[in-house]
TrEMBL record:
The keyword Transmembrane is assigned to this record: yes
TM ranges: 6-23, 35-61, 67-87, 99-117, 129-149
Keywords: Membrane, Transmembrane, Transmembrane helix
Record's protein name: Tryptophan-rich sensory protein
Source species taxonomy: Bacteria, Bacillati, Actinomycetota, Actinomycetes, Propionibacteriales
Organism: Enemella dayhoffiae
């Protein structure tokens, strides 16, 4: 996996973000539209965000960065914090339907939960990465809940 694959998956994230931006001002067309557009593409966007981070990690290892050790741990922690920042910006500016926010958050938290488990029980065991991945997953869910509550309230003028 190299820089080309990182570029392709980053473009996929951008395309899904663009899709959400284009559909955010459409009127609510009922439960079917929420499921097929907001929920489905929200899950996809969240999953691709986590997959992008995994792809970056693979590209770094492929370019010679060791998969274990202090440098790998620091870079992984930075990537996890980038996931949190990307979600915060995306949920705050791009996602205007609570179903989208919740779907993106669920997919990201699920992916980070698996990353935390893998770093706890897998070959590349790292307790700091385990805890930070779990904490970022929790923070994503908290931010999503707060944004969802805000979006469910009627707009005041």
């Amino acid at each position: 996996m190299g820089g080309g694959s990182v570029l392709v998956i980053a473009l996929l994230v951008a395309a899904l973000g663009w899709l959400h931006r284009r559909t955010r001002d459409l009127p609510d067309a009922g439960w079917g539209a929420r499921v097929w557009v907001q929920l489905t593409f929200g899950l996809y966007l969240g999953w691709v965000c986590v997959a992008t981070c995994a792809n970056v990690a693979l590209a770094l290892v492929g370019s010679g960065v060791p998969a274990a050790g202090a440098l790998a741990t620091v870079l992984t922690l930075v990537v996890l914090l980038v996931v949190l920042a990307v979600f915060a910006v995306t949920a705050g500016r791009l996602l205007t339907h609570r179903w989208s926010v919740l779907a993106v958050a669920a997919a990201i938290a699920w992916g980070l939960g698996w990353a935390a488990f893998a770093r706890y029980a897998g070959e590349l065991r790292s307790i700091p990465v385990t805890w930070v991945a779990a904490l970022v997953a929790l923070l994503v869910l908290v931010l999503a809940a707060l944004r969802s509550v805000r979006l469910s309230r009627p707009a005041t003028r």
